[in-house]
Amino acid sequence: MRINEPNRIGMINAYNKTGNTQVGKTGKIPMGKDEVNISTEALEMLKQVEDPDSPQRREKVDRLKKQVEEGTYRVASDKIAEKFLSFWQKK
What we know:
This is Negative regulator of flagellin synthesis. The chain has helices at 9-17, 40-48, 55-70, 77-90.
């Protein structure tokens, strides 16, 4: 049984050609543009979020941080399940 054949140059040439990209006159490889699209659902959620600088928001965040640090932060599993369900039912 022969594993390596000495005349298999075609595959090596095909591999070597994949690295060749066309370079423009400037000597740089042309790049595509980055683009971000925000869905209407995300925009609606953003409108519903409290002002991050409000005292109520800061108090809530501080309270949650303290609970996480102390290891006392707990979320009821039924609330998590409700959120998942409502998310999946929208689609």
